[in-house]
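Now for a specimen:

…
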Amino acid sequence: MYLGKVIGTVVATTKNESLTGTKLLLVARLTEKLVPDGTTVIAVDSVGAGNGETVIVSGGSSARQVVGKQQSVIDAAIVGIVDTVQTVN
């Protein structure tokens, strides 16, 4: 899992059947300082996240389990919306 910031929405009218009914969001991966590291991913939204929100992203088979689609092409899923982050020096 890692932290990311939602930076957009992805609309695909033609897609794999296993993605039907999912909301796809573009997420920028964040460093431990909460700044984008230059990596982006398309993630299935399982929690109702919106643009600009900091989110928790799960990847791989864990992402498929979250949305209940184990045989899907899903590789990343948003599993939480972050309220605050506290780091230790």
Notes: The beta strands are 2-10, 24-30, 36-45, 54-59, 76-81.
